[in-house]
Specification:
Length: 295
């Protein structure tokens, strides 16, 4: 059997692919965070709660209406995005002219309220969620048995990240969004509804978090704490990639997922802290992040 640094090649390749799967969730979640911070300058601490809401929306749609995975993949993110748009317009928008700390404190409190409410009603135990029947089973890759659904998650993540990057960087709507954050008065003078653009931006970021939650529901149990367990790592990913960098969030999400998977092979004791060690090193050497712009 082929060995690399004393580790069997099948085990190494298996952990590498598992790292890519984790990196897929990191990429989608950090992308949503980067969109909100890059365009609104709001550190959205409620992102983990919105991720959890997406998973619970899919679970409740199935439990109470019989609506399965594929419709929920569309409905749940739209519901979370709509609720988030109302919150942004009625509450968060009042904080834009204040210090960024106020936005962080507001979204942190919002996350505690949402997670606490769901924990009170559903309890802390997780709920299973059935994935689509068409993606049941797995494929033998030779070095590992890959569940078909997890392979679908990787492909879906790549498509979603690429689509959002093209929307922000290559379309007229994306240009309006970027311009509205740099000089809202000038953009509004050209007849563009800047408040609506900002609301749509926050809804887009929240919808991405909810979409990741729906994708995660068949893999992990649907729990009120599922977002709080992940959001700290996602914040570290965004900081390493560069706060507000769309491409940086995507690349760093996959990169750190792979690195985390490889660490579990070569040094399992460090797998839970490797992301934060890298974050500390990056902040010391390049405070703006790997792909961020120096101010």
């Amino acid at each position: 059997m082929t060995m690399i640094f004393g580790v069997p090649l099948p085990a190494l390749l298996g952990q590498l692919f598992l790292g890519i799967i984790n990196g897929s969730f990191y990429a989608i979640l950090s992308l949503g965070l980067a969109v909100i911070f890059g365009l609104l300058r709001v550190i959205n601490f409620a992102h983990g709660a919105q991720y959890m809401l997406g998973a619970f929306a899919a679970y409740l749609l199935l439990a109470y209406t019989g609506i399965g995975f594929w419709p929920a993949l569309v409905i749940a993110p739209l519901v979370v995005a709509a609720v988030s748009a109302v919150i942004e317009r009625t509450m968060l928008s009042r904080l834009y002219d204040l210090d960024h700390l106020y936005g962080l404190l507001f979204t942190f409190g919002l996350a505690l309220i949402i997670e606490g409410s769901f924990r009170w009603y559903f309890g802390a135990a997780g709920q299973p969620y059935s994935g689509p029947q068409i993606l049941s089973g797995g494929t033998n890759l030779g070095f590992m048995f890959l569940p078909n659904y997890r392979g679908f998650v990787v492909v879906a993540s790549i498509v979603i990240c690429l689509a959002v990057w093209l929307l922000i960087e290559k379309t007229r709507l994306g240009a309006y969004l970027r311009a509205a954050t740099e000089n809202p008065q000038l953009v509004q003078a050209f007849g563009v509804n800047v408040p609506l653009l900002l609301t749509l931006t926050y809804a887009l970021g929240a919808g991405l978090a909810a979409l990741a939650g729906v994708l995660a529901a068949p893999i992990y149990q649907v729990s009120p704490l599922m977002g709080s367990n992940l959001i700290i790592i996602v914040f570290a990913v965004v900081v390493i990639g560069g706060m507000g960098s769309i491409g940086g969030a995507i690349v760093t999400g996959y990169m750190l997922g792979i690195l985390e998977g490889l660490t579990k092979v070569f040094y399992p004791e460090a797998s839970n802290i490797v992301v934060f060690v890298i974050m500390a090193i990056v902040l010391m050497l390049r405070p703006a992040g790997l792909f961020g712009k120096e101010v």
